[in-house]
Specification:
Layout (H helix, E strand, L loop, with lengths): L1 H30 L10 H7 L4 E5 L7 E2 L5 E3 L5 E2 L10 E8 L2 H6 L5 E2 L2 E15 L2 E2 L1 E2 L5 E6 L8 E8 L2 E5 L16 E3 L2 E6 L3 E9 L4 E2 L1 E4 L9 E6 L4 E4 L8 E2 L2 E10 L6 E10 L3 E4 L3 E3 L1 H9 L2
Parallel strand pairs: 17-23
Antiparallel strand pairs: 1-5, 2-3, 3-10, 4-9, 5-7, 6-7, 7-8, 7-15, 10-14, 11-12, 11-15, 13-14, 16-20, 18-19, 18-21, 21-22, 22-24
Length: about 300
């Protein structure tokens, strides 16, 4: 009898242990659900970004050259040099990328930031010149003329030069920090239908103005259903036409009271298997944004970006 009683107690303990294990596993599944995972959207974004236009400049070239979206350029050949300082002879190649809309900045993953502060921006371009396959530079003291189109030119925009910073493009309006000394002012002139200036360095150029605010907040991004590791998150501030790209799920500082359009983009099984998140908020405190990705199409996502 004693052995039978002990046997029954052992069975009961085993059943209790199994029940606790099953309950614990079930509880883990409830508290730690498997998140939706995504692939990087870089291939999709690259497929949508503005092309780099190429122009062959020869002795019959005229100034200004007018690019597809209206950027005017004029470069004197005697201001060009090979990297070793040698002169350049016709013909040479001029390449330009034009980014004048929030959509195009997002496709290019090109933020409008300077040292962590937002830039009010009227457009971003990249200008490069080549002789055969060798990239050219401007001679010391030289510049090239640019006019960037605008329907409402402003008299306070400045030339911000792009440079690589931790795999991102940052901007400065002081070219001396990039090794370029110049007598030219960084301030754009507001002309009919655009902003014009003498530019002293090839590469990325932002027609912008530093926007300093005494009160700023940051947004943090989380999700209970989606793994955000490979999700590209952008913030558009329409008042200043600024694009931010969120890194490590925490935004840069956003001015108090700013309207912020949040766009998140990801892909699943292929480039056309698109997912997105879209929300508009007024930033008046540091807060956490709960992201839930939804299936979409290229056409519908394009409409969302066109309406920013």
């Amino acid at each position: 009898m004693k052995k039978r009683k002990m046997y029954r107690i052992s069975q009961a303990l085993i059943l209790v242990s199994i029940s606790l294990i099953i309950f614990g596993c079930s509880k883990d599944r409830i508290e730690n659900p498997e998140l939706n995972s995504y692939n990087s959207p870089n291939e999709y974004l690259d497929s949508k970004k503005q092309e780099e236009q190429e122009y062959i400049i020869d002795t019959n070239g005229t100034c200004p050259l007018i690019a597809k979206q209206g950027t005017n350029l004029c470069i004197a050949k005697n201001c060009l040099q090979l990297q070793g300082g040698d002169s350049v002879y016709f013909p040479y190649t001029l390449k330009i990328v034009e980014l004048y809309t929030a959509k195009d900045l997002i496709y290019y993953q090109m933020a409008s930031m300077s040292n962590g502060s937002i830039l009010e921006t009227e457009g971003t371009i990249r200008v490069r010149t080549f002789k055969d396959d060798k990239e050219l530079a401007l001679r010391n003291g030289c510049s090239y003329y640019v006019k960037m189109p605008s329907n409402a030119p402003k008299n306070y925009m400045r030339s911000f030069y792009g440079f690589d910073s931790s795999s991102l493009i940052d901007y400065t309006d002081d070219p001396s920090t990039l090794g370029v000394s110049t007598p030219y002012t960084p301030v754009f002139s507001d002309t009919a239908q655009g902003h014009s200036n003498n530019i002293v360095k090839f590469g990325w150029l932002n027609c912008g103005k530093m926007h300093i605010s005494s009160s700023t907040y940051q947004l943090t991004f989380t999700s209970t259903v989606d793994d955000l590791t490979n999700v590209a998150i952008f913030i558009y501030l329409p008042a200043t036409k600024t694009i931010m790209q969120v890194r490590n799920l925490v935004s840069d500082s956003i001015p108090d009271g700013a309207e912020a359009n949040i766009i998140a983009i990801a892909v699943k099984s292929g480039i056309n298997d698109l997912y997105y998140f879209n929300s508009t908020i007024t930033v008046n405190a540091s807060q956490s944004i709960d992201v839930t990705m939804e299936s979409t199409t290229d056409a519908d996502l394009t409409k969302v970006l066109d309406n920013l």
